[in-house]
Amino acid sequence: MININEIEKAAEKIRKAKYGIAFTGAGISVESGIPPFRGENGLWNKYDPIFLEIEYFRKKPLQSWKKIKEIFYDNLIKAEPNKAHIVLAKMCKRELIESVITQNIDNLHQKAGSKYVYELHGTYKQLVCTECSSEYDISFADLNFLPPTCYICKGILKPDMVFFNEPIPLFAKNRSFAEAKKCDLFLIIGTDAEVFPANSIPIAAKETGATIIEINIKESHFTNTITDIFLKGKATEVMTKLGELLYLD
Ligand code: NAD
User: Can you list the domains of the chain with their CATH numbers?
Assistant: First the structure.
């Protein structure tokens, strides 16, 4: 059950903010049919996460690719933005939110129309050659033949998403911290952000003095530590109500 009073309070903060930022995780895309990693219906209840470890990928690219294709590519290519992505894109268009920092690799913020998106964990949409670093849009790859290989050097292509034990892309990381240190409003949607350094970005915003608004179906470790307004509920329900209160339609 969503709390209208709290959503009204949040809408007022968003309206008055000078520089608002959004920070999203797997939870915003659950209602687009993409399961999160953790939790009741999380991927790690069904699969061994080893296939996303970079050392495993290097040693056994075919085995890793088979799982990656089944879990990500067969679904993500068909996934569409839901109401939460769409309302957020409208907030961006109206400059209520200046940029979106996401841990997601699903490209749904861009598909919904958000312009400035910093992808902390990369994207499924691009493949990169493990030998010569050539980059390819996914539309150029034929995933019926695994592992996909580079047209130039025949090296194995890897999804341009951050595997376990790989560093975060420097540009996205630096931009995200710069945005967090600049903002006066920080909207967290659907994330436990248990991994470093993603989990320290909301803290950087809090230390700057930003108001932290959090949307989640359950409390996260931010809720009782840095969150000022907690909006309990599904991302689509809460964002739809926020969109109405901000006259975004
Ligand atoms: P997570 O799986 O650890 O947690 C998901 C969070 O979303 C939880 O806090 C959960 O309570 C919340 N949630 C679930 N359903 C929700 C809903 N309908 N509305 C609002 N909140 C909801 O995910 P995470 O914290 O984002 O981080 C783990 C990693 O998962 C990230 O690195 C990310 O790359 C990766 N991931 C991304 C995708 C994607 O691109 N869509 C999917 C799975 C995992």
Answer: 1-34+81-121+167-249 (3.40.50.1220), 36-78+122-161 (3.30.1600.10)
